[in-house]
Amino acid sequence: MTPNQIEYLLRSIRILETVGRRGSFSAAAQELGMTQPAISQQIAQLEHVLGLTLFRRLHRGVTPSDAGQILHTAAADMLARMRTAMTAIEASNVQTNLTVLTDYGFAANWLLPRLADFESQHTALDLCLLTTQARQTGAASDQADISILFGKKPDAAAGACFQLFAEEVYPICSPRYLAGMEPVTSAGDLVRGRLLALDSPAQNWFTWEDWFRLAGHPMRQAGSRNSLLFGNYPLLLQAILHGQGIGLGWRPLIDDYLQSGQIVLAWPEPIRSERGYFLSVNAERKNLASAFRQWVVEQARSSPFSTAQ
Questions:
Q1: What is the mean pLDDT of residues 218-242?
Q2: For residue 199, what are the contacts with CB-CB under 8 A and spacing of at least 6?
Q3: Range of the domain at 143
Q4: What pTM value is reported for the model?
Q5: 230 plus 284 within the same structural domain
């Protein structure tokens, strides 16, 4: 069958179904955007090819013959199947996966414990969680729909990027460790404890030296008796949980541990900066990311210390 023949057959099926359903050449012509004579001619040609009378012409409208009714039913069924198939194809081409880029600490200590709530509300959406060591804000990565990264407040030109959490850093330890220390009456008293620190602190993260200086007790004056260094923050956090000493804790990464009582604040006053966690959406995928963005903002706002807009 040639392309022209295929086109003729498909057009004839469409016209046959419409005429049979509307019961009038004029009504079918109006629906299909054709003229009444063109519809009449198309049906006449089809009847000639088949050697059958498909419609009986009445004073007003038409009615299908027995053969016409059989073909109309088959045509209507075929078109319905094609519409169903096209709908399925279109649905299969719709992106249903959402890629979120963040750092490991935010993913492990804040996002993952809450993610089941989002998945229960959006069961058809598949999440892909990417982690990075980057500490910078700005537009979402090309490979991600949404980025939640730590860094400085972006310029106004950075686009749709806004702050979820401001940087707040507290000295934290386990309840058992705090109970075994002498009473802490000033920030400077913390130097008597075992200070847990990163061996190679990532750029833009506060160090113990920063903390004591901003708290008004320069570390060089106090002098630390001992310390324990770690290569990454997850290991340091585990050491804190196991009562090995005092470390620095970033909100919101420590919120769940504080709420559960696994860790406590060794000193209640934090140090702060203009840095924090900022959320940005890939402009090309903003429609897909809107549900996740709204959910993250609501989760952030539920925190008593949230700075989410």
A1: 76
A2: 229, 230, 231
A3: 97-165+274-301
A4: 0.64
A5: no
| 114-142 pLDDT tens trace | 999 998 888 877 888 888 865 554 444 56
**Claim to verify: residue 156 and residue 184 sit in the same structural domain:** no
| CATH number reported for the structural domain that contains residue 190 in this entry | 3.40.190.10
Give domain status of residue 308, yes or no: no
Per-residue model confidence as pLDDT tens digits over 270-281: 999 888 899 988
Residue type, 55: F
Whether residue 250 sits in one domain with residue 102: no
